Amino acid sequence: MSLYKKPITDLKGVGQKRAEQFDKLGVHSVGELVNLYPRAYEDWTSVEKIENLQEGGTYCIRATLGTAVANSAKWGGTVISKATVYDDTGTLPLVWFNNVYISQMLVYGKEYFFFGKLTVDAYGPKMIAPTFADVSKGVGIHPVYKTTAGLSSKTIAGTVEQALALLPEQIGDPIPADIRRKYHLCGLRQALCDIHFPKTHAALEEARRRLVTEELLVLNLGMRGLRGQNRGMSGVQMPVDYSAAFEKLLPFTLTNAQKRAVADCVADIAGGTPMNRLIQGDVGSGKTAVAASLCFTAAKNGFQAAFMAPTEILARQHYETLSKLLQNTDIRVALLTGSLKESEKKQVRASLEAGDLDVVIGTHALITDKTVFHRLGLVVTDEQHRFGVAQRAKLLSKGENPHLMVMSATPIPRTLGLIIFGDLDISIIDELPPSRKPVRTVLRGTADRKKIYAFIKSEIAAGRQAFIVCPLIEEGETAGVASAEEYAAELMLHDFADIPVAVVHGKTKAEEKERIMADFAANQYGLLVATTVIEVGVDVPNASVMVIENAERFGLSQLHQLRGRVGRGQFQSYCILISDVHNAVTAERLRVMCETNDGFRIADEDLKMRGPGDFFGERQHGLPQLAIADFADTKALELSQRIADDILFTYHDLRNDELRLLKAEVDRLFRRGGHNTLN
Length: 679
Ligand code: ADP
Ligand code: MG
Hints:
This protein has 679 residues and is of the alpha/beta class. The chain folds into four domains: 1-39 and 143-167; 46-139, CATH 2.40.50.140; 243-429, P-loop containing nucleotide triphosphate hydrolases (Rossmann fold); 440-596, Rossmann fold (3-Layer(aba) Sandwich). The chain has 23 helices and 22 strands. The strands form four sheets. The protein has a seven-stranded parallel β-sheet with strand order 12-13-11-14-15-10-16, sandwiched between helices. A six-stranded parallel β-sheet has the order 17-22-21-18-20-19, sandwiched between helices. A five-stranded mixed beta barrel has the order 2-4-5-7-6. α6 packs across α7 (201-232), α7 packs across α22 and α7 (201-232) crosses α23 (660-672). The longest helix has 32 residues, at 201-232. The protein is globular, with a radius of gyration of 30 Å. Mean pLDDT is 86; it is low at 613-621 and 673-679. The structure holds adenosine-5'-diphosphate and magnesium ion. Magnesium ion (MG) is lined by residues 287-288, 382, 409, 537.
């Protein structure tokens, strides 16, 4: 019988109450219990003498109980348990709170291992709430589990130990033996035993490597499976290629990379299956023109296109770009955003439903139920990582399997991208328009502000414009707002008294922001002081200086996005990072920024330093939750990728009997994660 079918109440000491506690950890079966991996380990492999303990250090000591454990109740109901232990070098008091069982578990005169942190207060050194084990158990590496009320790590460990004893000697292994041999992966049984109770660090590493690889492999295969599903549907056909006609409307010629991306898309939409394509291109690589070309082709083929942007500013900007490009054509373009007047929205929606509009550009207003299309054939989302998979799906549901094009300027590390976008085909725009000069980036301290201001003024005098991302203040958003305004006021009073300065921050009303951005784009302002609201997409080719205060507070990818606001025209542009923080990590991060303009390299560095969460905001990538693997582990990602290729090459697909268990794991992971597929 599968251990996933065996309820944990079959284990000794697990009654209804325990089962409810385990339920909180998502564990119901013996199988799930062995997959509840420790969140950390206590290293008991080296035992320290009491006389050598230092304040703040975490130690394992071998000591004898010199007193019985004494319980005393404090006012308020807290129970304090105290005991003193000794070894041949000294004595040490131990203290526990609200754990009356301690007095029953520890026996006076007996020797134990104790593990804990040494704290020192007015009464001297002590260990607070140390964990302990019988000396007969021997020292080793002890698992630490995530706990829940009433369920201690120790109890979990004991229950896991029982569960592991139930594993049959010949346990079925999802990874076929030949693959395991080839990639030096240990067997599942050994991995499970060693991940919970490793004897050595090497054993733990081996177990971890095996389990991480398996999890990423399962994820990898699952994402590829999703892609396969989408292939099965029939989509609308847009057989005629209008991209050449569109190019004639542009004021520039497309780069080769842009041409390739357009050609990929045109080929996709001509066939009978829905396109699912990611256009990945660094900031300023010209993704909008590619999207516009596709919208044009869709419209010319008799379908409607919806272009969704994450912010009002961006939607409006795209709307202006597209309506200008298409002004002398028969294509009808409209804008639909939340800030439009109710009557305007109503009118746009009516025209969309009647089929009187061809291309609609907008924000989330596009996906509300009120928006109905006459014949939606193409969906484009800009800055895709800002939208959840669910939102994408909602917009897609407004047509009959419309084609999907998602654009991302966040250069997601290649390895991660392959998994995250496993259900998408990818075109990469790896070339900037030829007139573009790389942005020069330098790091300066706050002491250089005057010089920096003088430089900005000289650029503005030469006709250019500048951004300053103002300093952040820690106490929360309202303080941040005040600081943007105060900072700008300060500049207007002094250094920039003779230059029109605008301010935009998180609390600026949408209409106001639109107006300011439009005026800035029209060069009505020389300087724009802003919080990070200008991060995404804003296109002002005349701007040549980006100053970022408190640069150390930003992630590298965010800095790269901000820097991408300049260097978009033919002018030499500059990015000045201001920071007074000199610790090694910060210095290294900022040095990467000064050294390279390569978004991919920056994304890789960022992933190494911060993990993937920051690329997507709160769990927006729509991937299932991982139990042990880490998206930042590039090596493991690459390995899993290679193994997935190998398996699909050898077995063609997951239906092979050899892969029965692996397929079951894929199904389980995707059920557990509540994955939103596109269909
Ligand atoms: P992103 O990829 O960051 O969205 P945009 O589409 O906003 O980039 O393009 C950035 C700027 O480059 C815009 O001003 C656009 O008009 C210009 N641009 C795009 N493609 C080309 C090209 N092939 N040649 C010259 N300029 C271009
Ligand atoms: Mg863009």
